[in-house]
Amino acid sequence: MSAKDVYCPIPWMFQAVRNNGDVRICCQANVTKNQGVVRKEDGSSYNAGKDDMNEARNAKLMKVVRKNMLEGKWSTECGRCKKEEDAGLRSRRQYEQEWGFKLEDAIRITEQDGTIKTDDTPLVYYDLRFGNLCNLKCRMCGPTDSHSWYEDWLQVYGGDGFKDTHGYVKLEKNSKGRLHTSDYDWHTSEKFWDHIESNIPNMQHVYMAGGEPLMIERHYDFLQKCIDMGQAEKMSIEYNTNMTNLQPRVIKLWEHFKTVTVGASIDGYGDVNDYQRFPAKWPSVYKNLQVIDGLPSNVKAWLACTVTNLNVFHIPEFMKWKLTESKFKKINSSKKNPILTIHVAHSPATACIQTLPLEMKHIVKEKYDACKDWLITEDLPDHVVQSGIKTINNIVNFMMKEDKSSKWSWFCEYTKQIDKLRNRNILDVVPEYEPYFD
Fold first, then answer.
1. DSSP string, 240-256
2. pLDDT value at position 100?
C-alpha cells in the first residue's frame, strides 16, 4: 500500500478537542481504545484548558501517525476510515483531501520521526467540542456528550459517575440539587481562548460542536473577534447542532463569514427524531430548519443523519419526506448531497446496526430495496437517484459487514430501561421490533 492510499492532511494542519478538553488526533479515532487522545510522556492527556496546544502537535502519537501515513501504513487511530472505505462508504480521510495541503507538502516539511515545525506549519483547521452542555439526551450519546444525561445514566448504571478519557468523573449535587461536574468546563479557560484568538489570522476553517455549540456564550464573542480582525470574510465555520436553539444574534454574525455550514443533527422526521434525540420537539426543530433554508447564499446546510438501531427502518421514509414533503430549497439540495448526509453509528453497541439479528437485517434490506425501486420509478434527476441508491447500498453494506448480534439482548434490555425512565415505547417508532419487545 502506498502513502497516497493512507495519507490524510489532518495530522498536519488540524487540531481536535474532545468534550472534556482532551486534545485528540481526530474525531474519527473516537472508536479506538485510546479514543485518539494525545498524551504526554507521563501518560496524562494534553488538555486544551490548561496545556500548550502547540506542544501537543508533536506528541508521540501525532508523530507516529504522520510517520505511518508517509510509509503507507494504517494506524489504529485511522481504523474507522479504513473500515468505511472497505465497506464502500466515503470516509473522512477521503473528503479531507479537498484541502490544498497535499501529500507532497507533508513529505517536504516532516522529519523522519514524524516531527513538524509548528511555527512553519500553522493550524488552519480546528475541531472544537465545547464541553457537554446540551439540552438533549440522545440515545446514541451519554454523559460525556450531554450533561442532561447525568440522572438517567446513574439510574441505569448506578454508582456516582462515569469514565472518560481523562479518568473517572464523579458527579456531585450543586446548590440547586442538580448533578454537576466541572470536568467539562475547560472552554471557559482564558489560556485556551488566548491560544485560539492569537491564531485567528491563520484560521481557514473552524468546526464547532458540543454538547450543543449554540448554547456556548463565549463562542459568540469568538465569532465577533473574527469579524473585528477582518478574518471572518476569509473563514469557513461549521456547526453540528441539534437545531433547537437557533438565535437571531448568531444569524446576524454569520452574515460576515465566507461560508457557514450547518450540519443539522436530524435523524428522521416527527416522532422518530424526537425519540432518538429526546426530548426534541419536531415542530420547533422543523421551524428552525425552515429558517436556515431561507438564509443568504453563504450559509449552507445539510441533514446530518446518524443511522442507528432506532431509525434504520425509518431512513427510506425520511428520504421520501425530504424529496417530496420538506420543501427545502437549500438543505441537502446540492449535487454532492441531494437527499441526506448519512453517518452510521459505530458505537455504542446499543446504537450500531451491525448488532441487529440476521432476520432483522434481511427485513431492513427488503425495505431498502423497495426504496431503490421507488427512486428509480419517480421523476427525479439522475444525480438524486444515483445518490439515493448509493446511500442505501452503503448503509446495507455496513450493516452486513460484521455480525455483532451477540450484543442484541443488551440493546433490548438497555432500551427498555431508558424507555421506562423517559416514559417512551420503542414500538411506537419501530413496530418491527415487536417480537423482541412485546
1. EE-SS---HHHHHHHTT
2. 82
